[in-house]
Structure formats: structure tokens, C-alpha cells
Design a protein that fits this description.
By secondary structure, this protein is an all-alpha fold. The protein contains 21 helices and no strands.
């Protein structure tokens, strides 16, 4: 059965009998068995017909209601599935299969609190079900409950050392909370366990941890391994470009930004990153072209900033100052904009205005060392 569906519930084998009740029991058992086998073979229409036929015989049958819920869930019709599972639980409180299916529907609908509530009910009946424990841990991670999520993942590892879902979950959990060294520990463990058949997502996750930790050379190794598995993998290409950017090797980073753009020419973020790389390399005309392509898609702060910085470096201070002033209006806490605008004012020969720009930033009560140092350099020494 696919991961969308739980295991097939135990359906009693039909037994020979003569009474009407026995015939009814045998017919329901046979229809149930066939319905779940059809569902397993992805013959959803036929499975639904079998389950609906059961309901014609027995209106509140739990196998049929769960089966119809599973069929709806397999079609990604989660709200319909919720209705079937809820009906089953109304007639058969505590039915594990209905609880499992209902919780998975709420998860798919991004209603994680509801999913947790249902899974907790399930665990009252079966508190050592590793599949459910990892799902609950995942849901707690989604609602950013670090503590409860970690407790449950570790509980799974106590029950089954090296459980891949728990290790992956812990990797994501620590990464989401910017605990990159801990995330790296769990991703590395996944790699050690699957060295010969590693999932490419493990390699890019390890690479991303190194990227965040600024251990760029180590990150490059893992991203390159990922690219050997899939030369067009977006995350590997992005990771490599960003690592080379972090190492100030813009001529290498731009190679990978452009590889992404070959497949996705209207990616605004990548266009601005490539523009930044060309600007850092001093190729202002090409940088301007990339920034403009980004702006042709829609407004982008970084593209406007890039164009302003090109104007500034070319000595067009007034033009740059106008753009930077507009950006400050939309992002008033971005210290870098004030620093650049202050330098434009200096370029225009207005030292007092340059000081005033930096003081405007300080009036917001934000402490920034670079702004303070710039002010110290501009103010007359006593």
C-alpha cells in the first residue's frame, strides 16, 4: 500500500453458513476484502463501488466507511475523506484505521493541531506505533514546537535505533531552528547508514548545513556529489553557486547561477544573484541586463539596489540616491541602504547630509556597528 494509506485492516474470513445473517456476514467480508485489494491496485472506482455496496447491506459498516475514506484520500479529496472517517468514528469510537486516516487528512490540509489531537487519540490505543509517533513529531515540527517534536523523534530512536524517518525529522527540526551543527549530525548519520545508496536530498541537506555554517569548501564537496547524481538538481546548483559566492569566487558562482537560468530563465531571485555576481566582477553592463530582466518580471528590491550600486560606482550619485531613498521608504530598518545613501551624499560633496542619513537610521533605536563606525569617520574629531 502506498504511504497515503494505512495497512489493510484485518477482515474476518467468510465462513460457510445457512442463515440470512451468515450470508450477509459472508457477503460483507468478501466485498471488504475485494475493496481493499482493488484499492491496493489503484482501481479506486471499483473499490468505491464495493464499499458502497457494503453500506447498502449494513449502513454503518466500519470497513466500508474507512475504505471510502481511504479511496477519497488516495484521490487527494481530503475533505471528503474526513467525512467518511468522522462518520466511522461516530459509529465506532476509537477505530484505529479511521483515526489514522483522519489525522493524515488533517496533516495534508495543513491543520496540524487537529492532526496532533487525532494521533494522540490513536496513541492511547497503540503508544508504540513508530509510524504514528514520527507523524506526530513531524506535525509538532510544522507548528514549531521544537521540544515536543524532539522528544517524540528521540522516543522513536529509543525504540528503533537509526530509524530513517526520525533521523530525517531531527535533521529538518534542527535546521529549521538554525541549529546547523546538530542538523549536520543527523544528516551525516543518514549518509553513513546509506553510503552506497544515498538519497540526493541527504547530500544537499548536508551541503546546506555547511553553507549556513560558512564551511563552504566542505559544502561544495556534497553539492558536487549531488550533481553527479543529477546534473540539473536545483538545490545542488544553488548550493554550489552560493558557496562560491561565500568564498568570493564570483566567476565560479555565476557559472551555476546561469545553469539554473538555462532551465528557469524567469527565476527572479537567480537573476538578481547573477546580477550581483557580474557587478562584483566589474561587468556592469551584463549585471545591469540581469537586474533589468528581474525587474521586467516584477519589482525586486535587490535588483533596484543592484542598479543603484552600479549608478553609484559609475559616479551617478544623484540617480543612485533617488533609488536608495525610495528603497529606505519600503525597508526603513535595512542599515545597508543608509550606508550606501550616505556614501552617495558624500560623493555629491554634502558631508552634513551624509551624517544626517546615518543619524536617521540611529533614531530608530537600532544599534549597528557599521553605521556607528561610519558616523565616527564622518564626524569632526574634537
Amino acid at each position: 500500500m502506498s504511504d497515503l494509506l494505512h495497512d489493510m485492516p484485518h477482515i474476518p474470513e467468510p465462513t460457510a453458513g445457512q442463515t440470512e445473517e451468515d450470508k450477509k456476514f459472508n457477503e460483507i467480508a468478501e466485498l471488504s476484502k475485494n475493496g481493499y485489494l482493488l484499492l491496493k491496485d489503484n482501481r479506486v472506482d471499483e473499490a468505491e463501488r464495493a464499499f458502497r455496496k457494503i453500506l447498502e447491506i449494513e449502513e454503518k459498516n466500519n470497513y466500508a466507511l474507512v475504505g471510502l475514506g481511504d479511496a477519497a484520500r488516495k484521490r487527494n479529496h481530503y475533505r471528503d475523506a474526513v467525512g467518511f472517517y468522522t462518520d466511522c468514528l461516530a459509529f465506532h469510537p476509537g477505530n484505529n484505521y479511521a483515526l489514522f486516516g483522519l489525522a493524515d487528512c488533517y496533516k495534508a490540509l495543513n491543520q496540524y493541531n487537529k492532526a496532533i489531537e487525532i494521533w494522540e487519540q490513536y496513541l492511547q490505543h497503540d503508544d508504540r506505533n513508530i509510524t504514528v509517533l514520527t507523524r506526530v513529531a513531524d506535525a509538532y515540527r510544522k507548528i514549531r514546537d521544537f521540544r515536543q517534536s524532539k522528544i517524540l523523534y528521540l522516543r522513536v530512536l529509543d525504540m528503533e535505533e537509526n530509524n530513517p524517518y526520525a533521523l530525517i525529522g531531527l535533521g529538518h527540526l534542527h535546521y529549521d531552528f538554525k541549529e546547523y551543527r546538530d542538523a549536520l549530525y543527523y544528516w551525516q548519520k543518514m549518509l553513513e547508514l546509506n553510503e552506497d545508496s544515498v538519497d540526493i536530498r541527504v547530500l544537499t541537506s548536508i551541503g546546506n548545513c555547511h553553507r549556513k555554517l560558512k564551511t563552504f569548501e566542505q559544502g561544495i564537496y556534497y553539492f558536487q556529489r549531488a550533481l553527479r547524481m543529477d546534473p540539473d538538481n536545483f538545490y545542488a546548483l544553488f548550493g554550489l553557486a552560493d558557496c562560491y559566492r561565500g568564498m568570493n569566487q564570483q566567476f565560479r558562482s555565476v557559472e551555476y547561477w546561469n545553469k539554473i537560468l538555462e532551465k528557469d530563465q524567469n527565476n527572479k531571485v537567480i537573476l538578481t544573484r547573477a546580477g550581483d555576481a557580474y557587478r562584483s566582477m566589474g561587468d556592469y553592463d551584463l549585471a545591469q541586463d540581469y537586474y533589468q530582466r528581474a525587474l521586467d518580471i516584477e519589482f525586486d528590491v535587490y535588483a533596484v539596489l543592484g542598479l543603484a550600486l552600479i549608478s553609484k560606482v559609475k559616479g551617478r550619485y544623484e540617480e543612485a540616491a533617488v533609488s536608495l531613498s525610495r528603497l529606505i521608504q519600503s525597508d526603513p530598518k535595512n542599515f545597508r541602504l543608509y550606508l550606501e545613501l550616505s556614501e552617495c551624499k558624500l560623493g555629491l560633496g554634502n558631508k552634513a547630509a551624509a551624517i544626517e542619513v546615518l543619524q536617521e537610521f540611529q533614531k530608530q533605536g537600532i544599534r549597528n556597528q557599521l553605521v556607528n563606525e561610519a558616523l565616527d569617520r564622518l564626524r569632526p574629531r574634537e
